[in-house]
Amino acid sequence: MFGLPNLRRDSRGFTLVELLVVIAIIGILAAVIAPSAFRAIEKSKVSRAVADLRAIGKAAVAYYADVGDFPGSKGHPPNEPLQNGSDPGFVRKPDSSWVTDSGAGYGGNLDAWGGPYLERWTSRHPWGNVYTWNYWLGYPVPGTGMTVSKAGIVTMEDYGRIPRASLEAIDRIMDDGDLSRGYVFYQGQIGSGYLQVVVATQ
Q1: Membrane-spanning regions, if any (predicted)?
Q2: In the list 59, 84, 153, 164, which could disulfide-bond 117, CB 3.0-4.6 Å?
Q3: Grouped pLDDT means (10 residues each) for the chain, 202 residues
């Protein structure tokens, strides 16, 4: 008669060598997988920022088509404080009491406002700082020698949060890949300034 093998568990557990092998394997996997995961996360942030900027650009063109002018820089109702990152009139209908960062009123025919042009104003970009709307008259496009009569510009505040590779990727997708010139332009030293993106012109 054949006996059954003894199926009792060995109560000794893992040896130190076995634990070290497992830790080494986990470390190797982390070293291989982590950079790819971080690249994928950064790529998705760039894609989201580009989508946000394009949506704001389309909203600005639609607003202009209805009203005949762009919203004012950092525009806001008089009973709200001036702040970067607030809706300038793409979501809420502005009226004649709205003012800009310079204290000027809004231009165009505000009664013709047909919005909302955006479902919501995305105040924060994927790296955690704010998108701010600015409206320039006679905007000199950096490094090109051109001047645009009216420009709707979104600034993405950086201050060290956005990696240079991501700034360059946004520029490549939306302009010419050169952060020192064109419609996508970095203002200030990399890491201590902000990205200016011209999203609409007239």
Answers
A1: 20-38
A2: 59
A3: 55 76 81 72 92 94 92 74 78 80 76 92 87 87 85 86 91 92 86 85 84
Pairing of strands 184-187, 147-157: unpaired
Q: How many CB atoms lie within 10 A of CB 93?
A: 13
pTM here? 0.78
50: β partners:
none
Report the relative pairing of strands 131-140 and 147-157 from DSSP bridges.
antiparallel
88 neighbors 110 (Cβ within 8 angstroms): no
Are the CB atoms for 88 and 100 separated by under 8 Å?
A: no
Residue range 184-197, pLDDT digits in tens: 999 887 777 889 89
Residues with Cβ < 8 Å from 90, sequence gap 6 or more? 56, 59, 60, 63, 71, 115, 116, 117, 118, 121
Alpha-carbon span 58 to 2, nearest angstrom:
81
Q: Which two tokens stand for residue 196?
A: 């200016």
In the DSSP assignment, the letter for residue 2 is P
The CA-atom distances, in angstroms, between 99 and each of 20, 64, 139, 180 are 66, 17, 20, 31
